[in-house]
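Hello,

Our lab assistant flagged a job as stuck in the queue for most of the afternoon. It eventually completed. Since we weren't sure the result was trustworthy after the delay, we are filing this so someone can double-check. Below is the sequence as submitted and the structure that was eventually returned. Let us know if re-running is recommended.
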Amino acid sequence: MKHTDVEARAVKEATRAGQAAPKGERGESGDWARAPERSNMLALRFIVFMALVCGRHVTRLLLPPIALYFLLFAPAQRRHIKRYLFRAIGPQAGWVDGFSLLHAFASTVLDRVYFLRGRLDLFKVSIEGNAPIDAEIARGRGAFLLGAHIGSFEVLGACKQQTHQCNLRLAMLMYPDNAQRITAVLNTIAVPELRPHVIALGRPHSMLALRDWLDGGGLGGMLADRTLPGSEDQPAHQRGNNIVLPFLGQPAVFNDGPFRLAALLRRKVFFMAGLYSGGARYDVRFDPLADFGEPACSPAEREARIRAAVEAYVARLEALCRAYPYNWFNFHDFWLEDAA
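-- returned structure --
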């Protein structure tokens, strides 16, 4: 298949992914936000119970069989993992790499319990690049933190404890209908000051709630490595445009909605990642991506700056996927190959 044919197919499927479809007709690649959870409430509660009662070292003994179970009995996710690892590591990637990726994912899910309980003493966390964000907080202006399904988001709470930023206010911008079970369980065990504040996307009041949060000096965190679901009657800043860019050697679809939102609200954008390095080690990284807080510019210049910000985001994500291949937990048909 020619490269141009691949791009054309990606554009076509991206258009479908951004449009609403009747219930029951949505595929996994087109609507990850409504994909069913592969979780069991009893099993989740048992894991949380083990984590709180038996401690981290004992509970981690459960992770290898859990990772092996999903590797053997989740064929769709196994197929997507294989494609990703081939591109991040190379054709030599095999079952051991797939197991390592799932084990790292299970490790970060378990560690969420301890981060939400404020048990930073169990981990070795290094933080890089947070000075510009501290400066924005000191100025009393909010900013956007754009991450991906890479590593752990909850480890960002360590920044508040480790840097003594008592005024750090972080809201997660997300579609709350996905992963409701595990979110509900973890919220019940989180200490109040570390319980994540969520601003639900795709709702009429979302824009006003986000603007008020940022105006109060809060930070808005969002994972921007999935095409946003939505319909054509949504505002452009919520739906965004789907852009095809090379990612790990293959054209992939990214949505510029988060960057349009930042441009509309005239805020700075930073890349964030809480990378799991094995054992009890995490590396938190922050990198500047764009500054939309400058004076108003022409529509053409604004479009160029949004495009440049998306390209910078994709380049940063690709570099981290190659450097930390077992940290990207986007177990979906990211390159839209199933649709073909």
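-- support follow-up --
The delay was a queue issue, not a problem with the job. The result is valid. The radius of gyration is 20 Å. DSSP finds 13 helices and nine strands in the chain.
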